[in-house]
Amino acid sequence: MPLIINVIRIKHHLYNHVVYSDSEMSKRALDFYQEMNQRRSLREFSNREVAKSIISSIIQTASTSPSGAHKQPWKFCAVSSPEIKRKIRKAAELEEEENYRNRMSDEWKSDLEKMATDAHKPFLETAPWLIVVFKEVYGLDSLGRRHMHYYVNESVGIVCGFLLAAIHNAGLVALTHTPSPMNFLTEVLYEIHFVMTEKISGIFEV
Ligand SMILES: Cc1cc2nc3c(=O)[nH]c(=O)nc-3n(C[C@H](O)[C@H](O)[C@H](O)COP(=O)(O)O)c2cc1C
Questions:
Q1: pTM of this prediction?
Q2: Which of 20, 41, 72, 77 could in theory staple to 24 by disulfide, Cβ–Cβ 3.0 to 4.6 A?
Q3: What mean pLDDT is reported for the chain?
């Protein structure tokens, strides 16, 4: 039973610190480095099904991330519907064609050469799940009043890091994908998700 203490009317749980010896800490630090060093961004995916419960646990892990004033200014939208994925791919590829043709600088394109990426994004349909991460620029209470969120970009960046680590830990792979601008995605997802206070931060194909 966790010990709960009231501090300034807010319930605080007593932190249970597990203490390791120096050698255990060294081993854990090295083991984790070796595990995380296996993670790679992949651009080809198997279409083998991944259970929704696994994606839920991964998102729960990501949500343990710290955030400015604990506002948790993020939302996740996990898409597995072939129809919606098809729409997202079609819209993303249109946007990417314009990026590669007119929007990206020569330096950017040259930096991307080693990744052999182009405007084709078949993985948006093949990957069993697309996890879209939204950042909530501000909060809304039940009366529709706006509330401040703090360090939104930093908090959402950290939550994405936790998300990638959780995906890797589960034995899955991901690509961080940031087609820009992402308005097309808001439009496609508007049909299934009411977006008002949120901006899309990135898509994670899993
Ligand atoms: C913020 C961010 C945006 C990225 N956007 C894209 C993207 O739009 N398309 C893509 O193919 N890879 C994208 N990547 C993946 C990077 O190319 C990749 O992380 C980098 O090459 C290092 O490879 P690794 O993840 O396998 O270590 C992005 C990564 C980050 C962190």
A1: 0.93
A2: 20
A3: 92
